[in-house]
Amino acid sequence: MKARKILLPIVLAILAIVFFSVFVVKEINQAIVLQFGDPKRIITTPGLRVKIPFIQNVVFLDRRILSLDPAPEEVIASDQKRLIVDAFARFKITDPLKFYISVGDERVARSRLATIINSRLRSVLGKQSLATLLSEDRTKQMAIIQEGVNNEAGKFGIEIIDVRIKRADLPQANSEAIYRRMQTEREREAKEFRAKGAEMAVTITSTADKEVTVILANAKKQSEIMKGEGDGLRNKIFADAFGRDPKFFAFYRAMQAYETALIGGDTSLILSPDSEFFKFFGSVKSKPLE
């Protein structure tokens, strides 16, 4: 009974020592074994590892490619245009010991990297014009930024995999001013187009009116010419007919006069029987009554 009481604490102590002596390094991690804060070992391969319990402790660092999304930074281009640049970066811890000694943990590393990236953005992009920043040449500028950031990050045991710009926008006040300027410009162009359209409409209308007047005048002139030619031809026909048989012509004209004067209408004529108007009616003689 006494042996059991003595053996149980010993077993528990051994289990505690084993528990605090063993640790696992996962595939996504790399580890630094510290002894009273002093780095003793760097472990970069996964597996089961042993440390001195209660004397050594382990710091785990991520070995994956990590993302960094710093706050948007205002950049003044070489042509004094302001631009809000929103960039992001991807980095990897390549030297755990240097990383631990220089920055300690990932939170401090992100803060330092964000400062470096924003500084390089202002330094490199500030030497370029706004047109360059919005063109294909921006890729070249980003490569320069990545190289500069990598040189600084190498002091922390970090490798910069990539630096990119997500968005590059004008400040809100500038955007509103540009929008108003664009709106004013479009309104001015619209007024010019309307004015030119009205001017063209007046020109087209006046030209059409002029052409209508000319066409009507020419048509009237042509009709008068044709009418005159018709009257001349008619008079010629009458003259030829009168020249061939004056008596028949006089008779024909008298018949036309009779038709016009005597047929229909409410007009009353009082003429003498021996009037020249009735010369083709013959002599009027009374017949005796039988």
In short:
Helix content is 54%, strand content 20%. The chain has 290 residues and is of the alpha+beta class.
Structural class per helix/strand content?
Answer: alpha+beta
CATH fourth-tier homologous superfamily of the largest domain: Band 7 domain
What is the total tally of β strands? 9
Output the CATH topology of the largest domain.
Tetrahydropterin Synthase, Chain A
- Name of the top-level CATH class of the largest domain: Alpha Beta
What would you report as the Rg, rounded to the nearest angstrom?
58 Å
Span of the ends, CA to CA? 196 Å
Which architecture of the largest domain per CATH?
2-Layer Sandwich
Low-confidence stretches: 283-290
Beta-strand level of the residues, as a percent range? 15-25%
Tally the helices: 7
Overall number of domains: 3
Morphology: rod-shaped
Mean pLDDT: 81
Order of helices and strands: HEEEEEEEEHHHHEHH
* Largest sheet properties: 4 strands, antiparallel
Q: What can you tell me about this protein's structure?
A:
- Helix 3 crosses helix 5 (138-153) and helix 6 (172-244) crosses helix 7 (246-262).
- It is rod-shaped, with a radius of gyration of 58 Å.
- It has 3 domains: 2-62, no CATH class; 66-175, Band 7 domain (Tetrahydropterin Synthase, Chain A), CATH 3.30.479.30; 228-261, no CATH class.
- The protein has 290 residues and is of the alpha+beta class.
- 54% of the residues lie in helices and 20% in strands.
- It has helices at residues 2-21, 96-102, 106-125, 130-133, 138-153, 172-244, 246-262; strands at 22-25, 29-35, 38-43, 47-50, 56-62, 66-68, 73-76, 82-93, 158-169.
- Strands 6, 7, 8 and 9 form a 4-stranded antiparallel β-sheet that branches.
- The chain starts with a helix and ends in a 28-residue tail after the last helix.
